Amino acid sequence: MRRATLVLALALGVCGNGCSEAPRRETASIELSAERAAMLNTLKRYGLHDERILAAMAAVRRDRFIPEAFRRGNEYGDHPLPIGYGQTISQPFIVAYMTWKMALKPGEKVLEIGTGSGYQAAILAELGVEVYSIEIVPELAEHARTALKAEGYGSVRVLTGDGYKGWPEHAPFDAIIITCAPAEVPQALVEQLRDDGRMIVPVGRGRQRLVILRRKETRVVQEDDIPVRFVPMVKGAE
Ligand code: SAH
Q1: Does this model's pTM top 0.70?
Q2: Range of the domain at 152
Q3: What is the mean pLDDT of residues 183-205?
Q4: Distance 223 CA to ligand 1 centre (A)
């Protein structure tokens, strides 16, 4: 996937259509609603062709993670959506892209910072990884717990707390996905990566860039990736 193409694609933004009732997940082969099929086509147009990621994106009912008061029938559109408390859920492509970049293997242990709606956590759970997620707004943490359970992702563990501290009791993690933007890479979280563990994080105030880190024993290899826009990662009370 070429960076220039991706950046251009990010700037485009194709709005979603109306949204009908999503099909039930239990069916052996998932019958996609027109909205979900369109979302998958958009992901492919962006250049994302990984079968496992596409299958996870097809399986999770994004609309069920948007708090009811914010559902407008455009939950599968190519744009972020408000979820309350001044927070947003990323556009589907960014969720898929960040997940893809982590090259997760089933059984790996993943920490997400910024549970929000619970949608990203559900995508991770679909990939067969063990998910730990931290959310600083108690009401969002509660919403995410409820939505995750209702959608069959009750194994995802959600902690109400400050993501800057990570979750030392469950460290080390194979991967850490941060879905809110700190001004700098949080060192406490780098220390919770296992050897060969990776992290993806939008870094910066205002202008942000995805940064991908890989821990190699005592060294950390860092690579800048595409420009993005996330809500800030806020500091919790000490
Ligand atoms: N991944 C989410 C979207 C996240 S929006 C989803 O799939 O819906 C970013 C979230 O990060 C918000 O819910 C915000 O409250 C949370 N957040 C901000 N600062 C945080 C911190 N220090 N620790 C944990 N969560 C934080």
Answers
A1: yes
A2: 4-230
A3: 97
A4: 23
